[in-house]
Amino acid sequence: MTGFLSDLVQYRGLFQMIPVLGIGGTFQIGFQVSTITYTSQHVKVFINETWLKQYGYPIHQDNLLFLWSITVSIFGIGGLLGSSGSRYLTVKFGKKKCLLCNNLLMIVAASIMGCSKIAQSFEMILIGRFLCGISAGLCVPLHYQYVGEISPRKLRGFANSTSSLFWSLGKAVGQISGQRELLGSQSLWPMLMASCGLPALVQLVTLPFFPESPPYLLMHKGDQEGCKKAIRQLWGEGHHQAEIDDIMKEKATMKNTKILSVLELMKEPAFRWQLYMIAILSATIQLCGINASSIIERLGRKVLLRGGYWIMGSLLAGITVTISLQDWYFWMPYCSLCLIILFVVVFGVGPAGATVSIRTEILRLSCRPPAFVISSVLNWLGVFVIGITFPFIVERLKHFCFLIFMGVLFTSGIIIHLFLPETKGKSIVEITEEFNKLNFKKKRITTTPNHATEDYTFCTRL
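^ thats the sequence. predicted structure below, dont judge the formating
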């Protein structure tokens, strides 16, 4: 506890910045995911009313269901587009500027949805949802990269894991706000849809007081003074030579190296297994749970991922059994409920935060933008595919559908156990060397060129 309090004082700039990024990042996405459920009946009534006014006859129920499905799914389409453009925007403008512009886009989208009832136009809801999706697609990779790059090595896992906390918090606030007694009523639902702009407004006002990430300032802008100033503001006046050396080593390895495109990254054999890990994690992580604070720093990423997936797979087996026996014992449904709660808790304690850390830690700065594009696209595709196919799977397999996910979890755990290096407390150069053993097998690869130590002198006086 004493160590945490001392870190809180020393790294107060970082701890002040994490809520700013979280509120305007994963919080608002979790908020939108939960609030759309509470507006469904109101939006359907609104579509029917505006259709009647525009065309003189009520809308057919099949068409109403189709328009509502489009209203929900167009968020994912926007997310795909937004995540696809994150690589170009991040490299060209930096993460801080991109987040500020993205906040403006979210505020515009929220305003359009909020004014839809006054304008008597359900099309404005479609436009607003689409723009919200683009904003969310941009926000996720920007948020994860920014948080990972502003954190020192000792707090990197903890800082990254806060994203799942703010996601869960956003979902909880959205569920509370969507109650009929608050903003979920027939008269106030436009305000509920427009309220997603408030977190963006908070970040838009506060983020300018914080710096761009130190690695971006040094490696992309060549701004040594700006890098030193950002480190002081975020990490205090202590000794941060180890982290600075990591940045310098990465900078040295990036000399004469451009930021890779998505296709170039996919073709590059030096990052083959890093992409395999990202694809596996992105395919596995489709849920959100309770965050475990700083446990990720004590146990390590690999342990939390591997153990978490295996425990979750075992819990799914237990859920399948208890659901099968619900008609036999009156108390069996309570067992199912306890197992489901435990499943969510285990996910939050293990894979939720560790996955975010792994995505940031296993790739150099030159590869992170395209890698996050790939990860985000896979996530959005996963959400879309599961949303489309899961109802049919449940209809055919009933509760035995959990066995499919159990197989996925055990398989992912085995792959992580065999191939994922532990990243806890390691620099990007050390992690790259571990992956090179997989990428190049028995070939001897030098990850850090001879000139890796040049330009170190500026940071010794920090």
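Confidence is low (pLDDT under 50) at residues 287-292, 294-298, 445-462.
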